[in-house]
Write a sequence for this structure.
């Protein structure tokens, strides 16, 4: 399901975990990739044609000479790694940015898109990855907001929403309060919002990123419905298996340019991934276990009460030993961020304790915890990990501004910090012209390598890593995985929180799933499938289905809240 | 690659110069529009100051400098201490009251008065800091209101403690003893007046500001908080404590603003004590980009404009309030210019980094692909 970069033909990812095994049977995958272009179609059939789109854009990968046709009434996927230039291209198509060169044709007509309203007028609508809905308004109110002139704000609008919902099987109720809707339903409201404004071409930016596997299926059904009604869908993703399932045509973008447009029937995920990456795929697999019996991080019965009485963390307990990686899977917003904040001392738990080896650190503040040897790779490096407008060497101090070599007594030791930044840049392969440039001018991968280097430079005992490879390029992803493996073999206890199931399966010694603040039992990454994890992540199945594999004794608190209730579960 | 790039230096000088030009043009247009003599006005404004005026400019700049540094401490961590005005008046009153008692001999009285003023200014600022940390009240709102309250409280207390002077409507605190008055330095030749002794205090404060913010752990924490509060929290900065400390420091420095006036000119706190210095400080801190040296230049410019405007009424028959237009336009222009330059600078740097990396990988990483 959510298994990017693994070929369908190569067997389930878990079984090819040791890289050697995967390499041992390349023949399985050797169906010739006749990556043919879709057969030429009459111009009238093309909803969108891009030709020679070039956008020069400092700092990030620009678009150069992008061109491909999109047939009407199809789902056309655009795949590429993070930073390959997909978003820029979509912004160009939605009129947010203007191309430096090239033409865009919609329905055979050259269009000049200066703003999103131009795009809407041309029949192009965009569904953003992050929903833009007002929680305290109803669906109707959200839909008409900004489009009041189309069908009014009363019965006319309600009727129109109902009509669209019925026509495309969106199952949206105009008078439902958005706050009450789940993620999938909110996405359908977003889609409806775009359709309401008369869009015939829909751009969906990473629509499955926020969805659990079951919701993804529903979304794909909706897309097929839209397609049947003659609408065109541009589907941006980097989850190849999903793309292969839903798309009629796939354009691969790499380093800002179109590599190829292929027919999903003629390629498999692995071939597609290689087109996307242009080199051998990195594998996150770890070697033999380095787990010891020395407990380094122990969390006991941790609870955190939310503002509305709903627990954000619900009696969480786990232990991580030296040399062990505990992976936490889960759909975002189920307590991952709060768990990290409590462990790092940024939030006080309502009850429960956190132990670093034998020391109770529950009441320590962030600085004490970090000084005691807890390294931290934050989920959002721009908000929590870096000072974007400060030079690299000051960023090297951040989080360790009380420790050698950054300070001497109460004074900043600029020379020491600079020298050590040079070392980190060298050893961790941070690509930068100098340590005096601002952190914001580096690419995401290099920023992350700087953070990892900084965190590993203070003899940590425990590493708390939240989404360590999010938004970094493939090269940096491979080196960050290497660094995590090194940390593990050096005897660190690693708490790895990730949304990338492949990363979790590949790096973890144990995987647990977090759902509405509660932790599931343990899964063995050698035997678990992403379907198992997906089911546990949604809570759609009973606990028996997500039952851990053999060899691990589930902890007592393995009581997940019931999926049907929203009042904090049935603990 | 060095830290001090000529490009950056040029950019940071270009902005204020550009702002001055814009102010010149806009003010001229205003003068033309209302039919005032443009040439006369600029001749007066740009005439070389006489020695006596030079001293006035330096003295005025000293006071403005202290005010701007007080504001800048807050700015460096994204705190808008609009309350320097109230803080310095409360502090000057408390200091004058204390100094007037003459409990201590000469210089000791001066030193302790300075401490008292800092405590008073810090205390007044701590009210806003407490409200922000504990109650989430925006410091902008609370400090503005505290300014108004300071006015009332000081007036009221002044009436309680002061006697009306003979032959005047002005009231004030007991004048400080002769032994505690500071004569100042006669550094400008041919001037009958003296430069405030406490210009040394301003220099010390400027140096301390540069040192503490740039060279100490505390300064790093403060600047980190200003650049990104969320990143500072994650790095272990206790932001509420930082807000308290920065706000109280700002208030304590604001407490110094009235000291040169008290010991070098007025010798008491009364109804004629100079007002509005706190607001000028906000503009000067912006103009000086929160930089110790930059603020010094900005203070001198401000003081120069103030001083030169005095002659406008007599020489050009134009109200000296014209200077407020000039100062206002300078501020607007400079703030806009700084922001534009900051953005351009970030973009240029990103482009340069991308370019240099592309050049690097072109020569050394060619063909290694993404795995390198």
């Amino acid at each position: 399901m959510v298994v990017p970069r693994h070929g369908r033909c190569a067997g389930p990812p878990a079984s090819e975990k040791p890289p050697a095994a995967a390499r041992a049977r390349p023949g399985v995958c050797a169906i010739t990739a006749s990556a043919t272009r879709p057969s030429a179609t009459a111009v009238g059939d093309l909803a969108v044609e891009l030709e020679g789109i070039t956008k020069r854009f400092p700092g990030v990968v620009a678009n150069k000479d992008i061109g491909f046709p999109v047939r009407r009434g199809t789902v056309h996927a655009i795949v590429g790694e993070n930073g390959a230039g997909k978003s820029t291209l979509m912004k160009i198509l939605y009129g947010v940015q203007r191309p430096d060169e090239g033409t865009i044709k919609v329905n055979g007509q050259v269009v000049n898109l200066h703003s999103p309203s131009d795009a809407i007028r041309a029949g192009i609508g965009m569904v953003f990855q992050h929903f833009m809905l007002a929680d305290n308004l109803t669906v109707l109110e959200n839909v008409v907001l900004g489009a009041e002139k189309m069908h009014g704000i009363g019965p006319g609008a309600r009727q129109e929403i109902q009509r669209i919902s019925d026509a495309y099987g969106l199952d949206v109720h105009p008078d439902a309060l958005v706050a009450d809707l789940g993620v999938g339903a909110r996405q359908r409201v977003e889609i409806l919002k775009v359709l309401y404004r008369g869009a015939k071409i829909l751009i969906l930016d990473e629509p499955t990123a926020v969805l659990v596997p079951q919701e993804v299926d529903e979304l794909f059904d909706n897309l097929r419905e839209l397609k049947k009604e003659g609408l065109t869908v541009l589907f941006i993703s980097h989850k190849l298996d999903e793309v292969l399932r839903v798309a009629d045509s796939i354009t691969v973008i790499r380093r800002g340019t179109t590599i190829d447009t292929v027919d999903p029937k003629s390629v498999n995920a692995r071939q597609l991934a290689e087109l996307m990456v242009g080199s051998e795929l990195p594998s996150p697999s770890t070697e033999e276990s380095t787990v010891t019996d020395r407990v380094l991080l122990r969390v006991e019965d941790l609870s955190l009460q939310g503002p509305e009485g709903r627990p954000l963390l619900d009696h969480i307990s786990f232990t991580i030993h030296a040399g062990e990686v505990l992976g936490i899977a889960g759909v975002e917003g189920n307590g991952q961020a709060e768990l990290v904040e409590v462990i790092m001392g940024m939030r006080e738990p309502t009850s429960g304790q956190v132990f670093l080896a034998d020391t109770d650190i529950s009441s320590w503040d962030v600085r004490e915890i970090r000084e005691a040897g807890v390294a931290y790779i934050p989920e959002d490096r721009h908000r929590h990990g870096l000072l974007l407008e400060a030079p690299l060497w000051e960023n090297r101090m951040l989080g360790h501004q009380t420790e050698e070599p950054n300070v001497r007594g109460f004074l900043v030791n600029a020379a020491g910090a600079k020298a050590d930044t040079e070392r980190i840049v060298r050893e961790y392969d941070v690509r930068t012209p100098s340590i005096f440039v601002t952190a914001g001018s580096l690419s995401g991968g290099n920023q992350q390598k700087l953070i990892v280097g900084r965190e590993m430079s203070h003899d940590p005992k425990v590493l708390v890593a939240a989404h360590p490879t999010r938004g970094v390029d493939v090269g940096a992803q491979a080196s960050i995985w290497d660094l995590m493996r090194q940390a593990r073999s050096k005897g660190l206890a690693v708490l790895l929180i990730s949304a990338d199931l492949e990363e979790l399966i590949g790096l973890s010694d144990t995987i647990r799933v977090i759902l509405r603040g509660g932790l599931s039992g343990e899964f063995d990454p050698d035997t678990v499938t992403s379907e198992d994890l997906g089911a546990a992540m949604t809570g759609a199945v009973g606990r028996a289905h997500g039952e851990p594999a053999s060899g691990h004794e589930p902890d007592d608190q393995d009581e997940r809240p019931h999926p049907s209730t929203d009042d904090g579960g049935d603990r | 690659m060095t830290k001090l790039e000529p490009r950056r230096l040029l950019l940071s000088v270009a902005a204020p110069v550009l702002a001055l030009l814009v102010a010149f043009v806009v003010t001229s247009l205003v003068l033309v529009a209302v039919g005032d003599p443009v040439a006369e006005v600029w001749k007066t404004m740009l005439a070389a100051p006489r020695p006596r005026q030079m001293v006035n400019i330096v003295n005025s700049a000293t006071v403005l400098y202290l005010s701007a540094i007080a504001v800048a401490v807050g700015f460096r961590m994204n705190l808008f201490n609009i309350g320097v005005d109230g803080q310095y008046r409360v502090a000057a009153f408390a200091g004058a009251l204390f100094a007037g008692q003459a409990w201590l001999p000469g210089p000791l009285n001066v030193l302790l008065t300075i401490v008292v003023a800092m405590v008073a200014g810090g205390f007044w600022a701590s009210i806003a800091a407490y409200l922000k940390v504990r109650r989430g009240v925006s410091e902008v709102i609370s400090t503005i209101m505290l300014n108004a309250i300071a006015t009332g409280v000081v007036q009221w207390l002044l009436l309680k403690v002061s006697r009306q002077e003979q032959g005047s409507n002005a009231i004030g605190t007991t004048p400080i003893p002769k032994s505690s008055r500071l004569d100042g330095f006669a550094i400008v030749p041919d001037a009958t007046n003296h430069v405030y002794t406490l210009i040394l205090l301003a220099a010390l404060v400027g140096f301390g500001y540069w040192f503490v913010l740039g060279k100490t752990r505390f300064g790093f924490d403060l600047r980190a908080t200003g650049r990104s509060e969320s990143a500072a929290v994650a790095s272990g900065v206790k932001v509420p404590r930082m807000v308290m400390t920065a706000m109280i420091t700002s208030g304590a420095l604001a407490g110094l603003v009235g000291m040169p006036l008290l010991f070098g000119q007025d010798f008491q706190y009364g109804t004629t004590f100079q007002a509005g210095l706190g607001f000028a400080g906000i503009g000067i801190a912006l103009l000086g980009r929160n930089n110790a040296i930059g603020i010094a230049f900005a203070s001198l410019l401000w003081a120069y404009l103030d001083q030169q405007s005095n002659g406008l009424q007599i020489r050009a028959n134009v109200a000296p309030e014209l200077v407020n237009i000039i100062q206002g336009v300078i501020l607007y222009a400079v703030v806009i210019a700084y922001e534009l330059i900051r953005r351009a600078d970030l973009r240029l740097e990103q482009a340069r980094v991308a370019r240099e990396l592309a050049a690097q990988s072109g020569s050394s990483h060619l063909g290694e692909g993404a795995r390198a």
